[in-house]
Amino acid sequence: MRATPGGRIAALRFAAAVLGVTASLIACGSEEENPAGNTVPTADTPQADIARTFDIGGGRQMYLECRGTRSRDDDVPTVVLVPGAVAAADTWREVADQSGDMVPSGSAVYPEVGAFTRVCSYDRPGTARAGDEFTPSTPVSQPTDPERDTADLHALLTAAEVPGPYVLVGWSYGGPIARVYAGTHPDETAGLVLVDGMSEFLESELTPAEFSVFLRMNELDNARRTAQWADVEQLDPAAIFPQLHAAPPVPEVPVVVLSGDTFDPDAFRARLPADAPADYPEVFWRAQLASQDSLARLFPGAQHITKTNSGHNIHNESPQLVVDAIRDVVAAAGG
Where is the composition biased (Polar residues) (predicted)? Predict the structure, then answer.
């Protein structure tokens, strides 16, 4: 493993249940000189690869990387990969090897998608890369929420002049961001792929006492992470879930939902409060599966892929499934 037990890799286990974390290696470039506030452009010509920070306004920088080509005449959407909690852009460059370690690979989601359309990923504030390298994106107050992160993503795509429309691909906590973005900016959204995305229906599948255990587990996760990085990204599901229930609906675009189908109860149990019921991992897993079914039903006509042979990190463990889902959505959206 590449991180200490208290570091990012320890949080990688599916039990992070909607709070997943992974990463890989990408160098930070120079700061972008474009001011924030421009309208999102359309593409006239293919663009060069980029990997750098951009000024999004308010004295803040955010890191973005893009590769591949698209043009307005081709009418092919740009794919925007939205990482999970604490994970940086490089998580989409990695696959799980036979030992379970995450390693950079040409068969990972980011390079594979870049072979057929423009693809971008980014570092939110408080995220970490391979080797526990902290992001250059300017820190912000924590915990965060999907509405704030949607505003940041829109400001970043605008500052970097990344042409829409977008197929938004959200893993774990990236799922709520992708959904809120699609509902807030429907004219910029061409499709949606949710990769074991956080589901607000988890709360209704648990009793109040069971949900309280989940929230306390999340607090312990946050405490472990802040012990390593003071400015690390933190989540509060009790605040996130109401935002999702109240979010504008996703427009009628192609949607694919991929759900993890394997679970490590021992790894999950290690993250629980000491007084959690002995059977809580099994209780949680049943609720997680049901919450993914409810999530998929939110989108009429959505394809729900449940046989993924993966835990929470589907994009690392079964990257070709994610690539194929993205390709299908891009094609259905007019690519």
Answer: 135-144
CA–CA separation, 189 and 192 (whole Å): 8
- What tokens does 175 get? 């799922």
The answer, yes or no, to whether residue 303 has pLDDT greater than 90, is yes
Please state the pTM of the whole predicted model: 0.87
SS3 181: helix
Separation of alpha carbons 69 and 48, rounded Å: 8
For 3-20, what is each residue's pLDDT tens digit? Answer: 332 333 333 333 333 343
**What DSSP string describes 232-290?**
-----HHHHHHHHHHSPPPPS--EEEE------HHHHHTTS-TTS-TTHHHHHHHHHHH
- Is it the case that residue 285 has pLDDT exceeding 50? yes
- Give residue 335's identity as a one-letter amino acid code: G
Spatial contact of 259 and 195, defined as CB atoms under 8 Å apart: no
> Do strands 303-305 and 119-123 pair parallel, antiparallel, or not at all (unpaired)?
unpaired
Query: Which CATH code, of 3.40.50.1820, 3.30.565.10, 3.40.50.300, 3.30.200.20, is assigned to 9-332?
Result: 3.40.50.1820
Overall average pLDDT of the 47-51 stretch: 88
